[in-house]
Amino acid sequence: MTLPSWENEELGTMKRAALWLVEVVKEGGTFTKEDVKDAFPGISQADRRVRDLRDYGWKIDTHREDASLGQREQRFVAQGQPVWEPGKATKSSSVITDTQRRATLTRDGNRCRSCGITPGQTFSESFETAQIDIARRKVKGLNGASSVQLIAECNRCRVGGRALEADLAAVLDGVQKLGGLQSQTLKDWVAADERDFSVVEQLWAEYRRLPADSRDKVRESLGLPPS
């Protein structure tokens, strides 16, 4: 079947953008916002229309999903619905709506629920700033059945946590087994929805990130034998 030309202005920007990806960028190809601007000169929302294609099943990765991409690069991974065809520009029921997105961000304190970083905050040991998005997290319920729930996560944790499944029953069982002091400590953390890490805990985390030779130096300073 012959595709319409992506240069046909009567189609509308989103349909033209979809065809441009298929005909010019091609699946697996990369592009930048500047490429979009050059392809659609004078159309201020062209890049937004490209992003809108994700609502129709199009897979377009950024450096958040594909670490091999540069900050400005995007990759056209897979085509979704052929939105240029009549009746095809219909959003899937699995799409996260703007209302769901806002509600999830508000409920989760507009921060990453995995690492606690907030939008625009710089990641430790890098110049990269955090972006908070909505991820789908599998949760095993009390009856053993799994469901998918929405959670706010940063671009780093979202990519690394795709295969994770939370276990609500295991968490509740662990809570029940806590002693009085531990239970109150956890209660305080949950009530505040945050906790401070001690100097020892921070050093432990830094130690765990060191390569083996450097870890041995730390062990030596503590009077321990090499690992």
Short description:
By secondary structure, this protein is of the alpha+beta class. The chain is built from nine helices and six strands, in the order αβααββαββαβαααα.
Describe this structure in words.
The protein is α+β, with helices and mostly antiparallel strands and 227 residues long. It has 3 domains: 9-78; 98-168, no CATH class; 197-227. It contains 9 helices and 6 strands. It has helices at residues 13-25, 33-39, 46-52, 98-107, 155-160, 168-176, 180-192, 199-208, 212-221; strands spanning 30-32, 59-61, 73-78, 132-140, 146-154, 165-167. Strands 1-3-2 form a 3-stranded antiparallel sheet. α1 (13-25) packs across α3. This is HNH endonuclease. It comes from Streptomyces silvae.
Which blocks of ≥5 consecutive residues have pLDDT under 50? none
Derived structural class: alpha+beta
Strand content: 5-15%
For the largest sheet, list the strands in their spatial order: 1-3-2
Number of distinct beta strands? 6
**Main beta-sheet strand count, sense and barrel state:** 3 strands, antiparallel
Number of helices: 9
Would you tell me the overall average pLDDT? 85
> Percent range for helical residues?
25-40%
Radius of gyration (CA) equals 23 Å
Domain tally? 3
* Elements, N to C (H/E): HEHHEEHEEHEHHHH
**Molecular shape:** elongated
Cα separation of the termini = 64 Å
